[in-house]
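Researcher: Quick sanity check before group meeting.
Model: Go ahead. Protein one:
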Amino acid sequence: DLPCDNREGSLQGHRAGHAQTRLGQTHTRQLLQQAPSAYRTQANDLLLTALARVIARWTQQDDVLIQLEGHGREDLFEDIDLSRTLGWFTSVFPVKLSPKAGLPASIKTIKEQLRAIPDKGIGFGALRYLGDETAKQALSDLPEPQITFNYLGQFDGSFGEGENTSAFLIPAVESSGASQSAQAPLGNWLSINGQVYGGELRLDWSFSQEMYKEETIQRLAQEYAEELEALIAHCADKNTFGLTPSDVPLAGLSQPRLDALPILARDIEDIYPLSPMQQGMLFHTLYAQGGGDYINQMRVDVNGLDVERFRQAWQSVVDRHDVLRASFVTQFEQPLQVIRKQVEIPFVSLDWRTQPDLEASLDTWAEADRQQGFDLLNDPLLRLAVIRTGENSHHLIYTSHHILMDGWSGSQLLGEVLQVYAGQPGTRQPSRYRDYIDWLQKQDKASSEAFWKEQLKDLGEPTRLAQAIRQDKVDLGRGYGDHYQVLDQQQTQRLIDFARQQRVTVNTLVQAAWLLLLQRYTGQDSVTFGATVAGRPAELKGVEQQLGLFINTLPVIASPKPEQSVAQWLEQVQAQNLVLREHEYTPLYEIQRWAGFGGESLFDNILVFENYPISEALQQGAPYGLKFGAVASQEQTNYPLTLAVGLGDTLSVHYGYDREHFSTLTVQKISEHFGNLLQALAERPQQPLGELPLLSQEEREQIIHVWNRTEVSYPSEKCLHQLIEVQAEKAPDAVAVIFNDQELSYRQLNQRSNQLAHKLRELGVGPDVLVGIAVERSLEMVVGLLGILKAGGAYVPLDPEYPQDRLAYMIEDSVIQLLLS
């Protein structure tokens, strides 16, 4: 209970007394206009914080129980608008507030306690009086607050003031009379009703004069005014600011963690988790810092550019889109993106009209800009350099981190910049990337797990294209390489027509050919590669116009059968792509975990079918007087091989490859074989997949005839092991035997077989002695065979996979004297 001067006093209305709390216009204006911005509160939060602190000191309790009144017109249903409905909707509900020792902690704590009340308390009365018996009993057993607080808001805008008698409503000078019978009970021990009128906050404290002395309540009212003024002064200080969990609900951060953020709270607009693709890019960016992964750069010549106007257009677009103002925090278990309220885009303007060797200087600048990379916490993640190269010409270098947005968004961004540059009104307020993150968090993770486990069940091992290709280490190197493949217009049109006939997309045709190539190269029954999907959910309103990173990389897993026809194969790939769309939001790292290979990557190559022509966006969006040249773009992923497929008048494939895994010659050969399979698919729809040619006619001729010329003279009097000894002398370091990723040179093979032969001779092996060898296919099997021959014996091969009774019979029948295993 509250402290009381006379607990036996009556609560009848005719015993009511009143005390006043009043704030002057200056403090009231600060309360309403300045103070809320410090902790992102409403005026009611601050009023209740001050009240809770005063009452807690009075009662000497840590918690304060208060009954709040609300207007009750909450937005519970999208199709019901109560804003103009007449009636009594007032909601009444209890709330326990827990002020702390200091003002900042008190404001944050009470703000969060108020935000935690569902639907602003409207459900309490419904459950208390209309709920089931359990709910009614539980709520009726709660302690009842003895203080009621009701802040009615600002009334200055509703009535005429002073000489302003033209307002529709003007307060009457006459008394309205008693609002209820003098015999009716008071609403509570203490009832506080407040409103702003005439620019001043006025709060009326009503109480029973039989229960409280007037000076007791007047002292509380005065302490409340002093507490409010101290709170307002604290919040109005320019160095006061704070963030609480309810301000950034998607982040899932506690108050201590919010307070520990390395970015000032006053600079933060929002915080939310990363999308699956963003998480992957963040990991690889931090893991291989300085490697250039996911640093994108676009370069283009432009004529007729107004540089300052261009800078202002870019800044305007950055101000409009939250995702362009993102920084990335990695200090917690889950990385987060922090949206800053304001970011000034880095913009460099240079005049190089007299620069010697201009082209080389531009290349050097661009490469240095790429190599600079980005500080994901502190830097704006896009920057521009506009370099003047002539009287009316400039060279634009636009560098950004891929973690901000995908290619479709990049095209949208450039179009919007040009629209603003042209002075056209901007599009309607864009939806926010946080809406997509919110949508992601609501998806059914269990359903996705079941789907992907079914997809993964036939994949026996990851698909490693680089490991499947025999490459000399001297041909490998460092850095990133590019190879371009372009089909002519006739070939491209043939593919488009064929895809239309088969009722599949060209993307499906490309994927089908790539899967066949992977199977031919690796020899695996089931193969997979990474496909980049658009990832924009149709149910998210305005998603096509949003900027952000929506794409995701997912495994496309298939087991092409040699007997399948091309038509059947294309139908299968198309159907699989359609099914994947239902679960294309699933994080790749989760899929890798479900695959059962220790979480390792399932593939070392990805295929991207690009549908965001940057050059087209520039040309179509350019206002009169502005002309863009050819666009040069550079992108780099963390995968050893990335295929970027573009479709226009011609079909083009850009192979971006890591020189540590693929040689230039290897990538050229891959592109030739890929082209062969694409053309073969389009030419032979009814042919079995097993008969489609991977090799060109020239390659087949070379393998079948040139490389198959086995006629050669050799000393027929020498045995196999003797010939190998001769070769070991001629080329000791040449590779003699290869098994998987293991190999032996001729020197190593000769030395190891000699060691074995000496041991076998010690054991009695010599001419006419049979030695059994039961070893699986391996380097050791070759060493064993040669060792037996060098010892003078003869070997009897025994397959360990044979049944035991058959092996026993072979051993007995051959009368072997020794067994190697």
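Researcher: Fine. The other one?
Model: Protein two, sequence then structure:
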Amino acid sequence: MDIFKVMKFRYRFRKHQQMMLDKLDRKLRSSRRKVFRFHLVAPPGSGKTIVGLEIARRLDVPTAVICPNITIQGQWADKIRLFLPEYGADALPEEINIGTPTIKPVNIFTYQMLSVPCGDDEALVRTAENRWAEEVSQSQNTGIEEALLRICRMRDSNPRLYKAEISKINKKLRQKYLNEAKCDLSKILHPNTVNLIDGLKRYGIRAVIFDECHHLQNYWALVMKEIVSRVGVKYIIGLTATPPVDEGNEDLLHYTDLFGEIDFQLPTPAVIKDGMLAPFQDLVYFCRPAPAELEYIRNCHKKFRLLADKFNKENSDFFFWIVDRIVKRRLISGETQDWTKFINSRPNFAIAGVKFLLQMKYKIPWDITVTENMYEPMTLDDWICLIEDYALNLLKLSSDEKDINLYAEIRDALRDLGYVLTEKGIRAHSSLMDRVLAYSRSKLEAVKTILKTEMSACGDRIRAAIITDFEISNALSLKKAKNVNDDKCGGAISVMKELVSDDITDELDPVMVTAKSLICDDDLAEEYVRLGLEWAGELSLEIDFSLKPAEFGKFVFVEGSGRDWSSRTAVLFTTYLFEKGVTKCIVGTRGLLSEGWDTLNLNTLIDLSVMTTYASVNQLRGRSIRKSNDDPKKVSNNWDVICVAPDLEQGYNDLKRLYKKHDQFYGICDDGQIQMGVNHIDPMLGEIGHRLDDEDITAINEKMLKAAVNRDKAYEAWKVGEPYDNMELGCCEIKLLKPVSMKDGSLFPDERRTLKSKIVRSVLKLAGTVMSATAAGTFTASAYTASVQASATAATAVPLLGFAVPLLGFSAILGYKTFTGFRDMWAYGKDNFFQLSVKSSVHDIARCVLNALRECELISYRAKEDDIVITERTDGTVRVYLNGSNADSALFSVSLSQVFAPIEDQRYAIQRFEVFVPKGGFEKFIYLFRYGIDKYSPMLSAYHPLPEVFSVREKALVFRKYWNKYVSPGDMVFLKGERGREVIEKYGRINSLGARRMDMKIWK
């Protein structure tokens, strides 16, 4: 039977799966390479196994699938049945081989099976010992013979350590052999493994599919590379959710040599839109260090604060040193180094130096180009950069006792902050202060606050997992932080103890499972054992349990035994109870509850670990977004708990981890957009140069807890089932901190004519009212005078009153019309002129940028104003992007952002005029009246730089045309000329609208 002709997937492929296969087909048609490579990246749960099997079917050549473990190997065997509907659950055709040495058209192996190393034969051991002796000889400055004698003694007296060391060297030797031009696999792999590889070659295996291929680094990568070369493979397919982007250069080189660049990368939102994964929202809860922790952190900062105060004086040696290094920039020849060459050679030092001088109110000379980031507040990294140069190039070279002592002060102050001053510069190192923040006691209170909120919203549906780095800490010595942290802080046991000691969270019946221990809430212990024995019996597993009460806390240690008992079995059984709701909370370490852990009902993930690598974060996030049959509209809340100490330089280190963690991941925003980076959690987190204070922390926490209970809103925001383009677009986020005044009237010709017409009609009505009221009053007065004169008769007064009464009625009606006319004029003026929102002002500038780019043929002529998308976030930040191609969107976003930058080193700038509106209500009314009849004086408000792409005069003139049409009248000025210098002197380096800008990426 031709297995590939028989295979056919029984269902329709999802949209994202079809996109992967379409990309494969296009590359197959265009490829001319001897070996075809296809590198596919897609999130956990997106159906990569199904796609891999379809790829094998389409290639129609003998294939080997290689997986990282037997669990995933079993998943491939299960999924292949979806391509062979006539076979039962336990049967597979003979053409399929699952892990045996008998090669068939389709073979499913593990990496271990194809990379079993050979035994450490005598020749290899002797070679390893010689290499070991060379290393010892070099490091300890001893002879080779003496080093060999030391190794022999260790082999006899301490065989355990000897084997550990020799094993490391053997591994290096095997890698060395694998890198040789003519590699002999028999020197590296077990004979049975070599026979299996030779069998693949004899059978004619032509395609290899590597599942979870991010595991292929170092030894595995080199072995697999040699195997595909030896077998003569024509098609190499790599499937993974987490490419090793964080790995070192050598590891990444091995990986890319095998798979090449990524051919297709599918973000998680696409799979959510297709309905294969559950929507989620990323949330953060901030806490402050406990009192003892905060005191410890402050003490660590004391010495540095004293140094900073000393350096922040205009008469300090440090100040004069920075002036000399940044402003004078003396070369050995005595000449001043060109600024461009200086900043290119030492960018961080140059930027930090200018920041410091600006902070000290020093007048920066014109040969120094001041850029926008130099106006941001000094950070600790800036101080480190400047202090390093000062300490190494002035103090350390001085013989003055005062300088020698100051050098020692700097060294001690930096050590307290987690830095080491060395001859090669200042280097960061692991510090106890980092640990205090990362594993703060206050995070335990935060976890309980989160869980109580989730419990109130979800009820019995809550399924929570709390992930820690360890069970009990032994990572760092805690002697210096005595009475601040203990060995349980931040560990799984400390979380478990806290949960069971609270009456509310204890209702979750939490279970802690790690590689070492299994701990159960005492309320659940008996039932846990009973259900565990039933579960083991159903699966024919040899397992037994016993209970051991804990010495502290309301929980019990569960001790398992039997042939089939292991930490993996403990995770499987606990997850089984978790899915059924017997326990509603699992506490565990990321080593067990990350990659490979499958749970469908998990809807609350609280991450207390400090991991930030792409692979680790991606795998952990993938645990909570599996679809649940019990909750079709499941939305997962993924929580980070962050401890910050506001106003302390190193008090934000935990927050930096949050930024790094979310830097490469998409999430849903409060305005419904799907955005990459930490900004999708809350716009306040993305503001450049903004340091969170206590008020910010409280506000963010309140928003997060409110969002946590409103899962329905999050589900609607994801728009599951709606079409998507799978495009990454550039967007610009702008927050204006200064108010926007009225625009020049020339930009409102139609609106201003309407306003003038309303004013004229209201004035005419007012005049008519006054005239009619005056006439009525005159007739009434005359009638009264006539009636009181003795000589007059009633016949004289009555006609006069007959004229007065209608006039009074007409006057009243006209007066009412006048009132409504002025009220209408006021409302029209406020809506169209006074109440110009940030959104509308940004939209005007966006229209100018778009039309100028299009006319200059910098973007597609198809782009139109309707393609500009503007949304507003909860804090007033405006998001703008162009709904077009990736390139057009990116250029539009960057260009728009540059308009809001201060004037620095650009070529052209353009004027913006505004009509400054009074604040009082009556003054505004009078001003609106004058504005409508063209009696106003617009004033020059600011100069805005033209985007970089309009640096050529012809293009700059096009930009001016649309600026004058949509934004403001005004001329442009060439900043490199004499007039330009005057403009920079008066308006340069000023953020006229207080704009905070961020260039972001969104997915649609």
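Researcher: One line on it for the slide.
Model: Residues 211 and 239 are 5 Å apart (CA to CA).
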